[in-house]
Amino acid sequence: MKKSTITPLLILLALLPGCFVVSLQPFYAEDDVIADRSLAGEWQETGKQNKWHFKPSDDAKSYDIIITEGDDSTGFFIGTPFKIKEQFFIDIYPDTSNDNKLPMSSVYMIHRIPVHSLIHVKVSETTATLRVPSFAWFTKFLEEHPDALRHELIEDNFPVVTATTGELQDFWFKHLTTEDAYIETELTKLP
Question: Cys bridge to 64: 55, 87, 103, 159, which one at CB 3.0-4.6 A?
Answer without folding.
Answer: 55
